[in-house]
Amino acid sequence: MKNGNKKRRVCVVVNSRANYGRIKSVLQAVREKDDLELKLIVGASALLYRFGEVNKVLKADGFEANATVYSIVEGETPTTMAKSTGMAIMELATQFENLKPDVVITVADRFETMATAVAASYMNIPLAHTQGGEVTGSIDESVRHAVTKLSHLHFAATERAKEYVIRMGEDPATVHCTGCPAIDVIANIDLSLPEDIFVRYMGVGPDIDPEKPYIVVLQHPVTTEWKQGQRQIEETLYAIEAMGIQTVWLWPNVDAGSDKVSKGLRMFREEKKPDYIHFYRNFAVEDYARVINNAACIAGNSSSGLREGSFLGTPVVDIGNRQANREHGKNVVHVDYDAKLIEKAVRGQMENGRYERSTLYGDGRAGKRIATILSECDIKIQKSLFYPKLK
Description:
Blueprint: E1 8-14, H1 17-21, H2 24-32, E2 36-43, H3 54-60, E3 67-69, H4 78-99, E4 103-107, H5 111-122, E5 127-130, H6 138-150, E6 153-156, H7 159-167, E7 175-177, H8 181-187, H9 197-200, E8 215-218, H10 229-243, E9 247-250, H11 258-272, E10 277-280, H12 285-293, E11 297-300, H13 303-306, H14 308-312, E12 316-319, E13 332-335, H15 339-352, H16 366-376
Parallel strand pairs: 1-2, 1-4, 2-3, 4-5, 5-6, 6-7, 8-9, 8-11, 9-10, 11-12, 12-13
Helix pairs in contact: 2-16, 4-5, 5-6, 10-11, 10-15
């Protein structure tokens, strides 16, 4: 390790259910390294009941938070997202001062990720970033690339993403293609479906029979289209209504427009009283992998369909612009917000059946690679643009 005989303190900030799924194997690998010391901060929607209380999942998995940060301003609008980011910067600065990390890890592209990056950067704490260099739609695109420019160490999930980060002027010596840590969980567990899985997580709606075909729907608001959230979710609801197939539906995240998506779901549930949809807040990381692995199709706009779904070979229907231009396997088809198009695509994917596994996003060893790099690398706090000299 490049830090004398002292353990290098690695601080990881977990802010949401998706965030945890994409960093869990890193937490495990860092904890197992003799020359690294894990510091864990849990904050934002990961602390809130309606978004799955991820803090309780973390504790059940054996992780104890060193600090918690409450920063979410209710309302789910662009204004509350900006205010939540500001609050998180202030709170994280206090916790970083208390924990004195040698390096902070931030994940992907959510607005909470921006808060982590800003606080660490201004406090001269080296910042490591996972999943930089990827291409998608919505405000996530801007946040992801901004965090890349604030980061000192980069753990890209794909070769293309690594190349893009280097093209952004980052020193190639600091950019590593490790694969996505989310794949680690999928690659190393029994993916068969426990008989009681849909009962254990309670939720609202009729029972899901694991012996019969089911689909999974996870559709978040698009921050750049946040006022259209209710109309967009209604198109998906109408498509599922036309099919009448049993459906595992996960609640949307906390982004701007979430209240409109949630309103659309509640109105449909109250008016239609569907006997084929069961709504859930959250699944543990491993159980979510089992649920989507055994699904006949995944529909919505979560990156898990393109990332984990591609590795599993689960058929996916990606709806709208939220994942525009993100890399994916052959298992994904794209449609617009149109009930008939969504229904047709889901039916077609179910008929196609499973696809061949893709290792585009990794082979299941990303967490160990990241922990090794964190242990062995020199991290320079001073950054500069890195481009080949012009002739």
